[in-house]
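queue> holo job accepted (iron/sulfur cluster)
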Amino acid sequence: MNLLKSVMGLIKPAKVIFRILFKKPMTLKFPSESLEPVKDYRGRHFLNLEKCVGCGMCSRVCPNNAIEMVKFNGKTYPQIHLGKCCFCGLCVERCPTKALTMTPEAMLSFYDKSLAIYGPSKLSQTAEK
Ligand code: SF4
Ligand code: SF4
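queue> job finished
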């Protein structure tokens, strides 16, 4: 009886180990693998320079004062400090010409905080895939 109990005691954990061994891992090999962003994910902004009329509405509505209007190619455009941004999306919502949108680009990390400042030129570049 005792021997049977001991054998059963070994079989149970062995079954668990085998089940785990052949199971698909729950984690991903980041950064080579990552999750697909969910629909309407609010990542870094994209600015369509042709659509932007320089009204400054995005800058006025921003609760974190993350948007400053700057001169670029003779016109006024928003510049966004992503270090201050909370990705609320209010600037995008209020933009009257839909010039400002949010991309799924979420991998934003910088060694220098000045790199988190996206001027019109950087904002108008398509998000990296
Ligand atoms: S997403 Fe929100 S916090 Fe970020 S720049 Fe736009 S309004 Fe400001
Ligand atoms: S992005 Fe939109 S809200 Fe901001 S200045 Fe341009 S047109 Fe106005």
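queue> The chain has a mean pLDDT of 91.
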